[in-house]
Structures are given as structure tokens and as C-alpha cells.
Amino acid sequence: MTAGRSFFCASLFVALLTAAPAEGQQVVSHGADFLATGAGGRALGMGGAHIALADDVSAGYWNPAGLSRTVFPEVEYMHAERFAGIVSFDYGAVAWPVNARSTLGASFFRSGVNDIKNTLDAWDPERNQPRPHPEEHISSFSAADAAFFVSYARLVRTNLAAGVTAKIIRRSIGDFADAWGYSFDVGGLYRRGAFMAGVNVQDAAGMRQSWNVNRDLLSNIEDVFGQTIPKGGVETVLPLLRLGSGYVLNFGAHHVTLGLDVDMAFEGQQAYALHTGGVSYHPRLGVEYGFRNVMALRAGFTDILKSERDGWDAAPTVGAGLHLGRLAINYGFGNFAGLASDLGYTHRISARVVLARAAWRRAAE
């Protein structure tokens, strides 16, 4: 194990053991952050500016109303590597037009970190130093997060659609703690000519996560790390308002797609974020050049931050796509500059298949 990986795992271990909320219920600003990776290589290549642009199976994540734009059933799979490969992320989804106006979708996400070192038993609190042969007392465990989405989209008018996604979250930290969570998203999509506007209220009524902690396994955490032993409880994650817009310019065989998204969070963040009062703003920009719907090149900016010490900073992204008949392969690469690069690069590749059978085509109105 490299020094960087060892430091990451040690830091993660401490963070995980103190992640569970205190007994009772509390309101928090973030939850199930593993879902922030997103869905689809096209979106990452465009900086995640996809609330208004998602019109395929990945819309179950970005904006469920976008599922209404699918003509045939679609299947997608994506694999991503985060933090220089330490964290693996997998996503799969299916969308199926039910009739002329309705579409159903399902999505699955999993993120995992393996080989996290548990050094609790390697420390002798009475002697205040490591035990003899400490390596014999070090064990390993894994932390895994998973989510299952069920989405429904409805075409309200020719240029207006609405959608909803129900979400179930499962999180585990070895044998130390686990949690179940649930919430739902509500989305809308408007299109007029080349212009698109979208909205997605993420965790519209707040996400509730219920944690269970095995305190017996953490009995010496106070002596080793100086941390209070966490207790189980319920936490409620605040909603996130995600606004998006897009515009498509066509030049014969060429097209240029522009995207601009802004997330509005209500957690009162002021450091490293644009803000007004208790609302913080997190913009994302993206552009795509396409040729004959066969190939595409993409670029974008995400994690646009501002601080008094460092000034403005942003994480650029790039990507590419290739369409081979019913198969689309998309790649996105991010976090290669700015403050975010310190956390390692992010690679994401996805494959989407359109099941273009005449019998499965969306029915005409």
C-alpha cells in the first residue's frame, strides 16, 4: 500500500467511525454523498451541467422528467474511479416507455472502499503506545454505499414533462455501523425549440437516514483517537434545488450544446461558495461539440469556488463520446487542475444501449 493510500485509509477510518449521528434526530446538510459522482460519462465530460440536457436513461438521476424524451427502452452501465482509484463506483439503469406519455425507470448505484485498516486493537491504552508486534492486531474492513432508484416520468404537454424518483439508500461501515435511508426527487423539464430548462428538487422532503452503531466494537476509540464513541440515531438531510438550462446550435452535420446548472443549497455554507445569507450557489458549465451524431467532444467546469485566501478556483473536465448504431460509449475525465486535483483524478466510462425494436417503440398519441 502506498503512503498516500495509507494516509487516505487512516483518515477515512476516523471519519467513518464518527460519521453516525448522536442519539436522537438531527438535521444535516449532506447525506449519501457517494451519489454526487453522478451518472453517465457524457455528464462528467460536461462538468455535470445536465439537469436540462438529460434526455436518456441517465435522467433517472439528473432529472426524472427527462425520461419522457426516450423513444425506445434503454440500458446503461457505468464504472468510475475516484480519488486516484481508491474509491470504486458502479451505476446501472434501465428506462422503458410505457405508453405515449409515460416512462418508467430504475437505477442502481454502488460505491465502495476496500482494505481500510482498523488499528484500534493495535494500540495499548494502558501503556499509551503500540502493542508488541502491532501488525498482528491490525485488521481490514470495507465501507460500501448503495442506492436504488425507481423513477416515473409523464409528458404533460408536447414541450413540458414532470417526473419523480423514489430512492432507497443502504450504507455500511464494516461491522461497526450501518444505515437505511429513503427520500424522493421531483423534476420538471421544459423545451421550446433549441432551448431547454429543467429543475430537480433533490430529496424534496428531506432524506431520512437511520444509523445503527455497534458500540462494543468501538469501546477503545476514545483512548486511540480521542473521539467520543458515536451513537445510532436518525438524521435528516436538507433538500437541494438544482436548476439547469441548455441550448443546442445546429450547423448542418455539426452541433454545439451548451449547458449551465446552478445548485442551491440551504445549509448556510459561506466558506468556499457563492452565497447570499443562508443559501449557497454551486454553478456548473458544460459544452459539447458533435459531428453527425457519431462522435462528440466535451468540456466543462465544476466545483466553482471562491475564498478570500485563494480567490476563484474551478475543476475543469473533459470527455468524448462515440455512437455506433444502438451503442453509445462515453468517457469523462475530471479533477486534473485546481484545488480538487489534490484528491486525485476521476475517470468515468459508460456504455448505453438503445433497444430499438419496433414493438418497443413509444406509442404515438
Walk me through the structure.
This protein is mainly β and 365 residues long. A hairpin with a 4-residue loop joins strand 5 (123-124) and strand 6 (129-130). The model is unreliable at 1-16 and 337-342 (pLDDT under 50). The protein has helices at residues 3-17, 41-45, 59-62, 221-225; strands at 25-28, 74-82, 87-97, 102-118, 123-124, 129-130, 139-157, 160-173, 177-192, 195-202, 207-213, 233-237, 240-251, 254-265, 274-276, 279-291, 295-307, 311-324, 327-334, 346-354. The protein contains 4 helices and 20 strands. The relative contact order is 0.19.
Q: Topology of this protein?
A:
Elements: H1 3-17, E1 25-28, H2 41-45, H3 59-62, E2 74-82, E3 87-97, E4 102-118, E5 123-124, E6 129-130, E7 139-157, E8 160-173, E9 177-192, E10 195-202, E11 207-213, H4 221-225, E12 233-237, E13 240-251, E14 254-265, E15 274-276, E16 279-291, E17 295-307, E18 311-324, E19 327-334, E20 346-354
Parallel strand pairs: 1-12
Antiparallel strand pairs: 2-3, 2-20, 3-4, 4-7, 5-6, 7-8, 8-9, 9-10, 9-11, 10-13, 11-12, 13-14, 14-16, 15-16, 16-17, 17-18, 18-19, 19-20
